[in-house]
Design a protein that fits this description.
- The chain is α+β, with helices and mostly antiparallel strands.
- It has one domain.
- It is 33% helix and 25% strand.
- Helix 3 packs antiparallel against helix 5.
- The longest helix has 22 residues.
- It is globular.
- The model has no long low-confidence stretch (mean pLDDT 91).
Length: 186
């Protein structure tokens, strides 16, 4: 009987020192732009925007993964081609990258040569870190290409209080540039 009591006491003591499992914070969602609004921001001068779906081959997936340093999971990507008077003036792709807990939805606008024209956050789903939607952060991507590192602490400065979100957006812009070069510009 004393042995059971001792085991029970030890078990309770162990439970008392084991930290509780961290709970994922309650989901919060702020929509800043609809897809239609985002396309107007990413390709502002287009008189026509046409979605085009690109499904990377196995070899293209390997090539993209090598360049990004991570695999891609989506089966295909939709690049919106913006034209004006029949001439292609730009492209845009909507992507999602995981922030601290939840995905951040954003659009990346690219010039026909693959240079980043515009980045805009469409939906942010966490209570903290939404400063990444402001120009002070997003303007750093203007003019960058897939040849640039597009990495925090290399050519992108993160925002204090939004460090994870800064890394996520930077990784997503790099992904957009590499996808464009591999799938669209080829």
């Amino acid at each position: 009987m004393a042995r059971r009591h001792l085991l029970g006491t030890l078990l309770l003591a162990c439970l008392a020192i084991v930290p509780a499992r961290a709970e994922t914070p309650e989901r919060y969602e702020q929509v800043y732009l609809t897809q239609e609004q985002a396309l107007r921001v990413a390709i502002p001068d287009a008189d026509r925007v046409t979605p085009r779906t690109y499904a990377p081959s196995v070899e293209e997936r390997k090539q993209i993964a090598r360049r990004l340093g991570r695999r891609i999971d989506e089966p295909d990507y939709v690049f919106h081609e913006g034209t004006r008077e029949g001439q292609t003036i730009g492209y845009a792709v909507v992507l999602e990258e995981i922030g601290k807990y939840y995905p951040i939805t954003f659009i990346v606008g690219l010039k026909p040569d693959g240079e980043v024209r515009e980045v805009a956050v469409m939906v942010y789903r966490e209570r903290r870190g939404d400063a990444v939607r402001r120009g002070r952060f997003l303007n750093q991507f203007d003019g960058k290409t897939s040849a640039d590192p597009l990495m925090v602490n290399r050519d992108i400065t993160h925002l204090t209080g939004a460090t994870v979100s800064s890394w996520s957006i930077a990784a997503g812009v790099k992904k957009a540039a590499v996808l464009f070069e591999t799938l669209v510009k080829r």
